[in-house]
Amino acid sequence: MDQDLVGRLMAEMDPDLLEFLQTKVNSFLKWDLIRFFYENPHTTDTAENIARYAGRNPETTRAELEELAAAGVLVESRLGEMTVYSLSSDPEVRDLVRRFVEASDDRQFRVKAIYHIIRGMR
Amino acid sequence: MERVKTGIAGLDQMLHGGLLPETATLVEGAPGTGKTTLGMQFIYNGIVRWDEPGIILTFEQFPSQYYRDAASFGWDFRRLEEEGKLRIIMTSPEVSRLDLEQVGGQIERWAREMGAKRILVDSLSHFERLSEDPVELRQMVYGFINGLKREGLTAVLTRESPALLGEAESYDEGLAFLVDTYILLRYVEMDSAIHKALLVLKMRGSDHDKDIRQFTITDHGIVVQSRFEGREGIMSGSPRRMAASFVEAFIRR
Q: Is B246 on the interface with A (CB under 8 A)?
């Protein structure tokens, strides 16, 4: 893909969502997890259980959850011997998650977001 | 005596007015008998009829499934959540158990913030994967139930029965001793058709009807009807017609 097209794709996106994509949602699994927590905003659970709910591999999911927690989207905490994850209660983060998930219902946005994720994975 | 009404007319009558406050009720039945519907109806009626906010703790279904199922009965769970009267929490038994044990845990905070009075736990069956030792399992469930009571919640807990008809084999009945009220939902085969039966097996601290009643799940939720008459062996799943004096069953009161 030429640089002009890349530039256009970048320019056409909401800058907040573009930054969110580039810095936080840099894999398809993270995208799934963000949608999961958007739809289940009160969930607090272990990586194994979240992987089961999402139908994904537990080890891969754990690594992605850790990165989302490091990025401030999720909160990682200890509960007894367990490490559990929940969606950040920060209203700004929750609003960004909402905007991202709602935007991703639009096909045009999805195509652009997929492109950015694939580009970031290279 | 103060009662926590389920709002399910025939059931409250069987419970002599409703459940006792801050007690735990186990609703047990085979898949599809209506355990979750009964629990949702208990929560919904509490909110809209008695202004008692409620929590649904789900170990299996996603909140979206509750929104959809509730909507089919005309209950707008999304709106109730937006109004802060309902919270549907998807979690696991191990996390919720430890959370309740903690001072200032999430469930405790949510219950206090909302002023929650009722909780549906759907379902207790998932606790069974936490331990194969029945004694340890009972201790876990006992602590969990006491945590809910400590928060002033009146709890309905569902549990799946492995038998579609009749009694299940190799089934641990120990958990039934931990709850205050025990309601059984059963499929009953009669005249080449499947019906549903409800029985209040026990109610600690109160008398209750011992009838086995037919119930149906209508567009507006569960409707408990009159007791089965002229039949015996209802809970076996395959009742026999009694003598000649068979009285027409299922007459709505």
A: no
For residue B234, name the pLDDT band (cuts at 50, 70, 90).
low
**Nearest residue, CB atoms, B89 vs list A39, A42, A82:** A42
Cross-strand bridge partners of residue B69: none
Query: Please, which residues bridge with residue B241 across strands?
Result: B231
Contacts of residue A91, Cβ cutoff 8 Å, sequence gap at least 6: none
Please state the domain extents for chain A: 3-121
**Residue whose tokens read 């990586």:** A47
B-chain CB neighbours of A37 within 8 Å are none
Task: Please determine, for the modelled complex, whether the ipTM score is greater than 0.90.
Answer: no
Distance separating alpha carbons of residues A45 and B78, to the nearest angstrom: 22
Best of A79, A82, A85, A88 to disrupt the B interface (most B CBs within 10 Å) is: A79
Residue B122 in contact with residue B39, Cβ under 8 Å? yes
Reduced to 3 states (helix: H, G, I; strand: E, B; else coil), residue B246 is: coil
Residue B111 · residue B151 · CB < 8 Å:
yes
Task: Evaluate whether B84 touches B54 at the Cβ level (below 8 Å).
Answer: no
A82 touches B at CB < 8 Å: yes
Question: What class has domain A3-121?
Answer: mainly alpha
Considering only residues B58 and B251, tell me which one the structure prediction assigns the higher pLDDT.
Answer: B58
* Min Cα–Cα distance to chain B from A83, Å: 10
The partner residues of B157 in beta bridges, in order of sequence, read B26, B121
B78: closest chain A residue by CA: A39
> HEC profile for B38-97?
HHHHHHHHHHHHHCCCEEEEECCCCHHHHHHHHHCCCCCHHHHHHCCCEEEEECCHHHHH
Domains of chain B by residue range: 9-241
Domain over B9-241 is classified CATH 3.40.50.11460: no
- Mind listing the pLDDT tens digit for each residue in A80-108? 899 999 999 999 999 999 999 999 998 88
